[in-house]
Design a protein that fits this description.
Number of domains: 1
Order of helices and strands: HHHHHHHHHHHHHHHHHHHHH
Number of strands: 0
Radius of gyration: 22 Å
Shape: globular
Helix content: over 70%
Distance between the termini: 72 Å
Number of helices: 21
């Protein structure tokens, strides 16, 4: 495959991403759903590809469209390989440019949030693995690995689902990546739609403390645009362009982080092969992206230690991350196999429904009992993240706390620093699939069940009293 083919395939992705943005700006019902332009573009490309247009053309007897739709097989091959590459960029940038707090500070600021977030992440494993051993394996003859897909799709989102695809395929679950992407799509759309419904319910019933009227955003925010009088810089220039373009510098830092992650993974695999590979192999199937995230942490710590921390701007890192994530989502959805989802429609629907019930239930029943103040504003962010991506949680928090009057954003941010290395694409997510493959579903089910109970227990023990007092004061205020 030539470089021209790769370059042209990426150009086509960019054109469809632009089309997705135009549709977001021009279509009101799309705005109400807050669908990202990348997801819109991905669905359009999926419809024009072999899974939809190609299948219809085949049924109608039209030649030339069955194999790849309006595209060609080489473009589809490029797009199918992009997610596994781009996900490492997304995770490598997570902590670059951020001041890493101590565990004590993160715990003090976001302890309740962390308990709630861990309960959501581990709970998704618990409910999915229980359904796997009780229903999906005996009734649908599913592989036990299906028990990991709910957390990969809901908590991890499209990026993690696409990044785990090669590992799932390597372990013999070829439909796993497509099912995870489908679950992630349900999570993102459901997270926004159910989140908006919950916010309006919270406003009407007095559970929100910042907003008391309509929960609707402005027209500009629904379109995903800024007003002319708003100024939001994309980042700070940390070096003079005459020396090196600041964007180039940051891309080079990301490259170093990914390379360090690769070296770490290679080292772990070599140790595994030398010590215990005859009995078990875990790191052989762990993807690169969680180690790229650790590489980013190492680079950030080293930069701070050498006094070079100001050279790394987190806003620029977010732009690089956003670019990689947008192209990742478009390419992943464009090559999504609807045939794989159709062949596993029973497990797919059961997992999605169970994940939605669990996530909504924990928000309404657990969050007000462990988050002392502004429980709805803070809980809705974790709800959104656990069903889609971090951006979903931020959108929902932005609706209920438009001017950041509550500690929701700060607590959510510090919670992420502790939470992200493990769930939603972190080490637990990456290791879950090879662990199930090697040992079956029960060890992970037991471990996640213990973690689920501990997270809830510690949250209620350390923060339940303060949360109860806060709820009592809210009721007194409302009655007065």
């Amino acid at each position: 495959m030539t470089g021209a083919v790769v370059g042209f395939a990426i150009l086509v992705l960019g054109v469809f991403l632009l089309l997705g943005k135009v549709i977001r700006v021009k279509t009101s019902w799309v705005q109400k759903l807050f669908l990202p332009s990348s997801i819109i573009a991905g669905f359009i490309m999926l419809a024009l590809g072999p899974e939809v247009l190609g299948a219809i053309a085949g049924l109608l007897g039209f030649d030339g469209l069955e194999e790849a739709g309006i595209f060609n097989s080489q473009m589809l091959e490029v797009w199918s390989s992009l997610p596994g590459l781009l996900i490492s960029i997304v995770f490598a940038t997570l902590f670059l440019g951020q001041q890493l707090p101590s565990f004590r500070r993160a715990r003090d600021l976001a302890g309740p949030q962390l308990s709630f977030g861990i309960a959501l992440g581990s709970g998704q494993y618990v409910i999915a693995l229980l359904l796997t051993v009780a229903v999906l394996v005996p009734l649908f003859n599913a592989t036990p690995i299906v028990g990991a897909l709910l957390e990969i799709g809901f908590e991890g989102g499209h990026g993690t689902a696409a990044g785990m695809g090669p590992t799932l395929t390597e372990l013999g679950f070829e439909d796993g990546g497509d099912l995870a992407l489908g679950i992630a799509t349900v999570g993102v759309v459901g997270g926004i739609m159910i989140g908006i419904l919950l916010i309006n319910w919270g406003v009407r019933t007095g559970r929100t403390r910042i907003i008391t009227g309509s929960a609707d955003l402005s027209i500009e925010e629904q379109k995903g645009l800024f007003r002319e009088d708003e100024h939001h810089p994309a980042g700070e220039l940390t070096s003079r362009p005459a020396s090196v373009e600041p964007l180039s510098l940051h891309v080079a830092i990301v490259a170093l982080s990914i390379l360090l992650g690769w070296l770490l993974l290679q080292g772990l695999q070599l140790i595994e092969q030398a010590v215990w590979a005859d009995t078990i192999e875990i790191f052989e199937f762990v993807p690169l992206f969680p180690l790229a995230m650790l590489g980013g942490v190492v680079v950030q710590l080293a930069a701070e230690r050498m006094g070079a921390g100001p050279l790394i701007d987190h806003q620029i890192m977010l732009r690089i991350q956003g670019l990689a994530l947008d192209f990742l989502i478009v390419s992943a959805l464009a090559t999504l196999s609807l045939t794989a989802i159709g062949a596993n429609i029973g497990p797919f629907l059961i997992l999605c429904l169970a994940g939605i019930v669990l996530t909504v239930g924990l928000l309404l029943l657990l969050a007000p009992r462990i988050i002392p103040d502004y429980w709805f504003e803070r809980g809705i962010g974790d709800f959104g993240q656990s069903m889609g991506v971090t951006a979903t949680g931020l959108i929902l928090m932005r609706i209920v706390d438009p001017d950041a009057e509550s500690p929701a954003f700060e607590a959510f941010g510090y919670k992420q620093l502790v939470f992200e290395p493990f769930f939603g694409g972190g080490l637990v997510t990456a290791a879950s699939v090879p662990l199930i493959f090697e040992f079956g579903p029960y060890p992970l089910l037991i471990g996640m069940s213990v973690l689920f109970v501990v997270a809830i227990g510690l949250g209620l023990f350390f923060y339940g009293g303060a949360a109860k007092e806060a709820r009592a004061k809210e009721k007194e205020t409302a009655a007065a």
